[in-house]
Amino acid sequence: MENTTLIAAFLGLIEGLTEFIPVSSTGHILLAGHFLGFDSSGKTFEVVIQLGAVLAILTLYSARLISVFTAAPHDPHARRFIMSVLLAFLPAAFIGVLAHGFIKTVLFETPILIAVMLILGGVVLVFVDRIAPAPVHEDAMKLPISMAVKIGFIQCLAMVPGVSRSGATIVGALMLGASKRAAAEFSFFLSMPTMAGAFAYDLYKNRDVLDVAALGEIAVGFIMAFISAVLVVKWLLGYVSKHGYALFGWWRIVVGSAALLFLINSY
């Protein structure tokens, strides 16, 4: 029990550290859980602890969000921002519901696929960081609705573990003309309904397999994810504004390659 709790805390730490950087938190958690022998019923632990990271974003952006929703009744810009996030969320919600069983029982159970996607995503990130067009949108809250919807469809690629939700949305935003900071911030905003929806739906689908022990592990992972996510978000915007995303691409390539070698040698 004690060992399982420590692993849950470690996985929660990984979740918070990786959720909002484009390295695939789910990929890291699933691979770490595989190598540590950690297994949760229906992979619910891996999805539910993401809510800790969502609450970190809500906490850090609470003042801005309250301001937007307060202004919405009389401010068309506030209403457009809310609409852009909701419309960007819909493609992932639709596909996530339709493909939930396949994603959880097949894709989440294929470590080699996760490692390969980490590598490929890293190559894409390094490449895009170099060739992305000059930014024309500097404010994440003022992206055109059509652009937000396109980013929402691109986010659906992250249904494959190892792709990275933040990675897909950031790459999409960069290629569509967002600045590096705006791409990261819009990814933050889009994560709120996306991850909260995934949490609620997964909890509903797996309500029959949750037990008291699992809830304890989830609580530990949740707290660790919240704390570490707060620290990462505060650091990330300043870093990517100055240095871009190449570091995260190389990290993905190294981690994915190492995991792939271990997995191949274990067969």
Automatic annotation (TrEMBL):
In terms of Pfam families, this protein maps to: BacA
Protein location: Cell membrane
**Which reactions appear under catalytic activity for this entry?**
di-trans,octa-cis-undecaprenyl diphosphate + H2O = di-trans,octa-cis-undecaprenyl phosphate + phosphate + H(+)
Q: Which biological process, per GO, is one annotated for this protein?
A: cell wall organization
Topologically, how does it sit relative to the membrane? Multi-pass membrane protein
What EC number(s) would the UniProt record show?
3.6.1.27
Primary localisation category? membrane
**Listed GO MF terms:** undecaprenyl-diphosphatase activity
Q: Classify the source by domain of life.
A: Bacteria
InterPro entries on file: UppP (IPR003824)
Give yes or no: UniProt keyword Transmembrane.
yes
Any single Gene Ontology cellular-component annotation: plasma membrane
Is the Nucleotide-binding keyword given for this protein?
no
Keywords attached to this entry: Antibiotic resistance, Cell membrane, Cell shape, Cell wall biogenesis/degradation, Hydrolase, Membrane, Peptidoglycan synthesis, Transmembrane, Transmembrane helix
User: Any stretches that span the bilayer, and where are they?
Assistant: 48-69, 81-100, 112-132, 182-201, 213-237, 243-264
What functional role does this protein have? Catalyzes the dephosphorylation of undecaprenyl diphosphate (UPP). Confers resistance to bacitracin.
Q: Which family does it belong to?
A: Belongs to the UppP family.
Any extra remark in the record? Bacitracin is thought to be involved in the inhibition of peptidoglycan synthesis by sequestering undecaprenyl diphosphate, thereby reducing the pool of lipid carrier available.
Can you name this protein? Undecaprenyl-diphosphatase
Q: Which organism is it from?
A: Sulfitobacter guttiformis
- Output the lineage of the source organism: Bacteria, Pseudomonadati, Pseudomonadota, Alphaproteobacteria, Rhodobacterales
Gene name on record? uppP
